[in-house]
Specification:
By secondary structure, the chain is mostly helical. Helices cover 79% and strands 0% of the residues. The relative contact order is 0.16.
């Protein structure tokens, strides 16, 4: 279909434009997030497979190294998102990819714990703005009715990168040991950091900032999408904060930050410590698994969670239910895993927790994007993501510190459950303020 031949009613043109944009943009965004999330959490595979021993890291120090990434994230999320809003997604995301790819690759040559912690901090600085930038970018292309579904497809990169990444990382560590004269975990950092730099070139030449600039979309679809997004933006602007400052001080934005903190706490606690927990099955249950087998077991919760994410997003339409129910189920499931009699039953409970986390995440982002637009959306989404992702520092640090103090992971995983249940409760309470959110904040 040429650029001038699309016909149909306004609604038909919007739907066909959404389908075309989804096929063109979302696969690339999934690939970008796959690499992003893998580079963020692959330290979880490096730790129990040689890195902790080589660098002399205790569980607490490993938690600091894993979590310090999010300090840099916190500092620059809002400024980075404002820069994306100003300069466009294509330029800014390409810049992010180059800087994080270089730092992720350099981690292969870290000589000691201090340098590792510094590099993890710089990796957080480099990646700041990527995820909230993509969430903001989706608001430039997809009306609210379709955005949750597109967000869910984008976020499939989390379970895919963790499931597939667990296998790939384990294979690299096991079979890459000695390559270039490096330990296996160092080879993993090297090989998994390079793709980000290569993808920056792809983004620079193929990502389109907004529908109006899409030479690959029929003019009628571009115009219909722009009109639908503009009308929706006017409605949201009347209901939510109208400025950056208004978004940053909005009580609703701060409450949503806590909800995101609680859900993501479960995600990162599992992401960073599940490989260590699985490795510990040998002492707890008398089992023995090779490195690759451990990677395959680590992949199970995320493979099942991928299906739960897609099915739940399609089935549930109520925004509160979409977030609160899976967060509650996941929060209750994780402490149960601590008291089961064999590793397979424990993995069932862990898998239910992973399903709860992953099912809640896409629905969550429909809450702030239905309330924020323009620069206020850039600031509000950046703030929610930065405060919420502080759990990425708190979760591994608290889990590691409690493990060192008690000699096991039980208390740390109880904290995971409490945080997720509290996120479900706050989400449920926020349903009462949805109508009240119609009062503008300047």
């Amino acid at each position: 279909m040429s650029s001038d031949t699309a016909v149909g009613t306004e609604d038909q043109l919007v739907r066909s434009g959404v389908r075309r944009a989804g096929r063109r943009l979302v696969p690339l965004l999934i690939l970008l997030y796959f690499v992003n999330y893998l580079d963020r959490v692959n330290i979880g595979f490096a730790g129990p497979n040689g890195m902790n021993e080589d660098l002399g890291l205790s569980a607490t120090m490993f938690g600091v190294a894993a979590g310090v990434f999010f300090i840099g994230y916190l500092l620059l999320e809002v400024p980075s998102n404002l820069m994306l809003h100003r300069f466009g997604a294509r330029r800014w995301i390409a810049r992010i990819l180059v800087t994080w790819g270089i730092i992720a690759t350099i981690m292969a040559f870290t000589p000691n714990a201090t340098v590792l912690i510094v590099l993890r901090f710089l990796l957080g600085v480099a990646e700041a703005g990527f995820f909230p930038g993509i969430i903001l970018y989706l608001t430039y292309w997809f009306p609210a009715a379709q955005r949750a579904r597109m967000t869910a497809w984008f976020m499939t990169a989390i379970p895919v990168s963790t499931a597939l990444g667990a296998v790939v990382s384990s294979l690299i560590i096991e079979h890459g040991d000695g390559l270039f004269g490096l330990a296996g975990w160092r080879v993993m950092f090297l090989l998994e950091g390079i793709p980000a730099v290569l993808l920056a070139v792809v983004v620079w030449f193929s990502l389109t900032d907004r529908p109006a600039a899409a030479g690959w979309m029929p003019q009628a679809e571009k115009d219909a999408l722009e009109r639908a997004l503009a009308a929706e933006g006017r409605e949201v602007s009347e209901a939510g904060p109208k400025s950056v400052l208004g978004a940053l001080k909005s009580p609703r934005v701060l409450a949503l930050s806590w909800v995101y903190f609680g859900v993501v706490y479960g995600l990162y606690a599992l992401g960073f410590f599940l490989p260590t927990i699985i490795k510990g099955f040998s002492a707890q249950y008398g089992t023995h698994f090779t490195t690759v087998q451990q990677g395959l077991i680590n992949a199970i919760p995320y493979a099942v969670g991928l299906v739960a994410m897609i099915v739940w997003t399609r089935r549930s339409t109520n925004p509160t239910v979409r977030v609160a129910v899976p967060a509650l189920v996941g929060g209750v499931a994780i402490p149960v895993a601590l008291y089961l009699s064999n590793p397979w039953l424990a993995m069932v409970a862990v898998t239910i927790c992973a399903c709860g986390v992953l099912a809640a995440l896409p629905g969550f982002w429909s809450l702030p994007t239905s309330y924020l637009t323009g620069a206020a959306a850039a600031a509000g989404i950046g703030l929610i993501n930065s405060l919420g992702n502080m759990s990425g520092f708190v979760a591994p640090y608290v889990t590691g510190a409690l493990s060192d103090a008690t000699g096991n992971n039980k208390l740390g995983l109880w904290v995971v459950g409490i945080c997720m249940v509290s996120a479900a409760v706050v989400t449920w309470l926020l349903r009462r303020t949805r109508r009240g959110a119609a009062t503008p904040t300047k």
